[in-house]
């Protein structure tokens, strides 16, 4: 538990560095890092950029896998998660584009009727890619105020995999703040890795800041996973949890 969001970012980035160093000690070994979007990880990305500049993390030895992407937004759209990642991390570190993996959410030439089948195939490919690359070493995740992780909304099953998801009213409302200057509103659907996909990472690093995450964190620890998807983390890989005092208050 840290004093504020800046300290949370420092702690979280130190955990990333420690695990990165342990994994990449053998020459040529690569670190597979799962990444999240949203407001919370922005400061952590700034800390990782500093570590890259100081030479303590070499991004040419990292492959990244993102949790999710809105369905229907072009990767260069200002609210797509691909754009978010470029803006907040990838354009500031020497990572080759071939090492960046983000679920595909833009399928302009498809009829609505064939969309779901094509996306389903893409989702299966994303799962295979993660396995083919040796699995995710550390998945950095945030938490929604309703307890969602990635875009796994309440009701998501423990074994869920990468798939199309419908966003809840609460999540759409929470993410509206990012779309105020945009040419569109929050999409109602997204492509998201599943709870199963996240829990299979070797380790997980959950970060949360601010009073609006108090209930979600409480439910993650004490609640029912059917209502709070983050509670499924209790049965998966080891989870590091970095929170600030205000998010922790209910615990
Ligand atoms: C989105 C993302 C999640 C993220 C959540 C919380 O819904 N899909 O991965 O954890 O927002 O975001 P914030 O950090 O902005 O509260």
From TrEMBL:
One of its GO terms (molecular function) is isomerase activity. It is an enzyme of class 3 (hydrolase). Its EC number is 3.5.99.6. It catalyses: alpha-D-glucosamine 6-phosphate + H2O = beta-D-fructose 6-phosphate + NH4(+). It comes from the Eukaryota. Transmembrane segments: none annotated. Gene3D superfamilies: 3.40.50.1360. Keywords: Carbohydrate metabolism, Hydrolase, Isomerase. InterPro entries: Glc/Gal-6P_isomerase, Glucosamine6P_isomerase, Glucosamine6P_isomerase_CS, NagB/RpiA_transferase-like. CDD domains: GlcN6P_deaminase. Residues 12-234 form the Glucosamine/galactosamine-6-phosphate isomerase domain. Belongs to the glucosamine/galactosamine-6-phosphate isomerase family. This is Glucosamine-6-phosphate isomerase. It comes from Aduncisulcus paluster.
